[in-house]
Amino acid sequence: MKKVLPSITRYSTSRYFLSNTTKVSRIPITKIPIFSPIFYQLHNTHNFSTFQRLNYATYKNHNEDLNEHYTMKPPFKPTKEQLLKNSKGFLERFRIRSKWLLIKDYRPFNVDEISTLFSWFFIFQILWIILGTTTFVSLILFSVDKILGTNKDFVSMILNKSKWGADKNIQFVVMGDVSPNWRKGFLAFKCLRIKTKNANSSEPIFFDLTIKKLELTLSLRKWLNGQGLINEINLRGIEGNINLWEDPMANNWIKNHNYQINKIVCQDCHFIYNEDLNINIFNMTLPKLRFKYCMVDFFNATVVSGSINDSLFTIHKRQHSLAYTKDLSHDLASSWERISRLRIDQTSIRDLGLPRSKSFNWIDDGKLEITADIMIPKIESVDTDNNDHTPNNNMEDHDSKVNKYIVMDFKFKFKDLSAKLPSENPHLSNDATILKLDELKPLITYVNSKKTWYHSMRQKYGDPFLSSLRSSTYISNESPANNSSRNSGNALGDMGWTFTDDQIQHKSSYPEITVFSWPEDEDGNNSEGGKEIIKYHNIDRDTNNNEIILTCRVVENVQDLRNKLLFKETKIYDMVTMELYYDLMKVVEDWEYKKNHDWTKLWTATFMSQLLILGLGSIA
Amino acid sequence: MNTVLAQEYVALKVGETITENNPNLQVIFENAIVPDWKGGKITFNNVFVSKRPQVNNAGAGVTGKKIKNTFSKGSQREAAERAKLALSEKQLLINENSFDKGNYAQYDLTIDQVNVSLNFSKWFSGKGIIDELEINGVRGVVDRTHVIWKEHDDPRNYLNVHKPGDFELDKFVMNDVLFTLYQPNGFRPFKVSIFNCELPRLRKHWFFYDLLNATAISGTYDNSLFTIHKKFTPDSGKKQHNYIYVDDPITIVTTMRVDNLNIDHLNAGIKGPFGWITRGQVDMVGNIRVVPISATGKIPVIVNPKEFLENLLLSSDYDHMKNNKMIIDFYLKLHNVEAQVPLLTSELSYINNALIRPIVGYINSRKATYIPINCRIVKNLDDFAGSWTIYDSLLMDNLSEKVYDSFAAYVVDDERRSLRVKRIGFWSLQLMLQLILMSLGALA
């Protein structure tokens, strides 16, 4: 301390004062480290002298009462501002600022702060559960898996005690562990079996499905909106039976009609529907499925391909045969959300169960191919939220502008149809009679006579289509017209009657060709040298195949399709049935008229000729 | 810089890069690039792709500068015009003299939208810069009328030779495709459409193989529906509930299926019994499995750095593929078949010739519902290396060979033949009886 003193005395004016104060002045210096290491450091460096000078007055004052000094804060602890004022350069200021920032505060949190922190923590937990429901559930399942070694028992217990398991008598059997996929954020079930508990076909709903792999994402936010917990579903490999004898929406088996699944992807699904139809779905992608608009959303699928009774079917966006160019996009914009094309390849009518149905009980056998264009209107989201019992004037105005009708164009191609007289009148689904039996007779006659005529013609002359082929190519081996690339075949043909395999040619496969030269431009010169248009003829091969083609168009308000799951429940089925009958009646009438007309013509011709002969005879 | 200008410049550059290696390929972007920020993809709208033989302009030589005739607006309009006419009701094909110079499948396609995502790390490892590709709305014409097979030419001469930089897409999606296909030798034109196509990967060197292993493809070929899809339950039907799920490629079967395909696609121009069928439809189902040769399932551990480098340069799982075999179970069902037999054939002896006529008669009668043909093809995966089509992978050769064998076996099968003769006898008797009854009715 003696060493320090001289330095101080250099600045002091009163020796006496200093000699008294030497002891006192030590106190703050030794005390400093307790308060702040920074301050201590500062004292030991070049700032020391500065402080002394600055705080000289304060020394003096505090000196007067030592007791007071001990209870108080260190007298010459410099404030941040003071330090800053005396610092030189940016770095130093930066150091001071950052050090102040890092000084630990000893003050404990008060109640307010703790409660704020807690509520923030709580809110974040809830937010996390809502936004990352899948991750949250994944984490629970993962921890259960780690603790118990397996989580399948836990999951089956949860599922079986849930609303679905307990109330609806559905049994869940989880065969494999449920493993969360962290990267893609979904839960993967392996080998899940879902079945209704009473395997009794008298129940309105019965199913027993084994799913090889089920991937789910959950969303609590959706659930809070009343749209169900499940957000997306990805299914792979389903095997089982589904029986829906009644509409589960209508009999309140499904209670939450607002349920909405935002994406469904299904691959390789095979089930037997109503113990009758063998349905395979190879690949299905639905962008959304609202239980309320189940049918509409199904037809709105990105793509569905599969088979019904082993004949293929698809649902896809209808393809226009126009090239995409700039001006086309305007033309394509329509009031429809989407125009979907449904196509079912020819399938046996008997397997489809048409002969057993009430409305077509007179059809015996044959094949049916269905093509349908389904024009789906835009269903507004506001519209869906609007409840039935709260009519709103604005809504009505809004509705009147928006197209709300679904239009379906059907084309039914019946092939090799045969018919029989049924025991009772054909009925609609509401038991209204469509036709009386005696009215039905002309239809049956038409269908059966068409069949017999076709087959007798085939046996006599072969196919009308084939006969033309035979006459031209079977023996004479006529070469197809001016097709340069078929020269190898023609060379043999030109030689005359050669009995080689080339005799059998596929006229329909190699149609005749006409070549047009390129038209001239406005200037009159054909600048495009050597350009030509080739036209193919006779490529229409569906000339006569014993087909009856019936078409119809059905328009239905989308709201009428609400809460309906089964096609039979809607009016569409009856409408299509009636339209088909109308169309068929028209065809039959035309046919009868033509037949009568032909017969009259024939009869008059024979009668007249006989008269003539008679007359001639009488003359002679 | 003006954004429109910049977009056009980028479009031009991208177009040039694509067409760099192939002078006959034209790529035109009508609408330049609109980045789709949400999906992290680059979108090209209204793309024209055309592959036709290009005639160099006379002016090109004079200026001394190589004129890129791949970007003229005129040719774009022409391509669109050709595609439009080919897709029209009349199916008109425009031909130019110069087109005969190109002995390859020529096409004019308009694409509504192309979405691309890029990956630089892929590019550095020599797998091409494109990571994922999505194509929506394709219309146009594929013109194969100029394809001529030289004599003794092997399709395998045109296999892809693998080199670093060949694209390897991690995802390929195609929606709403419709084009008219004009086959060589004057075969009738028909429409091919693909509703959707999803491939988990598409590699240039394994193009055809990856196509066969699609997640899902569905569409129509000459108005007959076809699908390619995955089957996760191979023993469907045998076991009701198979509880074991193995996410193993061995158990997953890819099924290809075509229904009601007109038979002339298969047998037009083919000699022999199969070619005698003049009319009919074919249902085809092919189940494809990839099975390792050795069941040990050992994964080769790479220690040798030289080997490691070689593996790196080769396409990703070439080694893995080399040890695998592809088994294709093929079912073919002919129905509504009509056949004509030539008066004399070299294929059959006199006795057989006499016997085949009732068989053809039987086929032609509607009593024969269908002719089933089964066969199994085992192929080395090596055959698919670099292959583009069913021909150059030699799958078509194997297939037609097997189908022909099965068909011939069916026709000449003694046991079946006797059964058939019996049936025909019964059938003709039935016919006679009916005739008699009918005439009786007429008399009465």
TrEMBL record, chain A:
GO biological process annotation, one example: mitochondrion inheritance
Q: Which branch of life, at top level?
A: Eukaryota
Protein's cellular compartments? Mitochondrion inner membrane
Stated membrane topology is: Multi-pass membrane protein
Its annotated function is as follows: Involved in the organization of the mitochondrial membranes and the global structure of the mitochondria. Also required for mitochondrial distribution and mobility as well as for the maintenance of mitochondrial DNA nucleoids structures.
| Keyword set, alphabetical order | Membrane, Mitochondrion, Mitochondrion inner membrane, Transit peptide, Transmembrane, Transmembrane helix
Q: Where are the transmembrane segments?
A: 117-142
Pfam families referenced in this protein's UniProt entry, alphabetically:
MDM31_MDM32
| Record-stated family | Belongs to the MDM31/MDM32 family.
Per its UniProt record, what InterPro entries does this chain match? Mdm31/Mdm32 (IPR012571)
Protein's name according to its UniProt entry? Mitochondrial distribution and morphology protein 32
Taxonomic source organism: Saccharomycodes ludwigii
- Name a single GO cellular component: mitochondrial inner membrane
Q: Does the keyword Transcription regulation apply?
A: no
Does the record carry Zinc as a key word? Answer: no
Automatic annotation (TrEMBL), chain B:
- Keyword tags: Membrane, Mitochondrion, Mitochondrion inner membrane, Transit peptide, Transmembrane, Transmembrane helix
Q: Where in the cell is it found?
A: Mitochondrion inner membrane
Q: Which family does it belong to?
A: Belongs to the MDM31/MDM32 family.
Protein name per Swiss-Prot or TrEMBL? Related to Mitochondrial distribution and morphology protein 31
How does it sit in the bilayer? Multi-pass membrane protein
Q: What does this protein do?
A: Involved in the organization of the mitochondrial membranes and the global structure of the mitochondria. Also required for mitochondrial distribution and mobility as well as for the maintenance of mitochondrial DNA nucleoids structures.
One biological process term in Gene Ontology: mitochondrion inheritance
One GO cellular component assignment for this chain's record is: mitochondrial inner membrane
For whether the record's keyword set contains Nucleotidyltransferase, the answer is: no
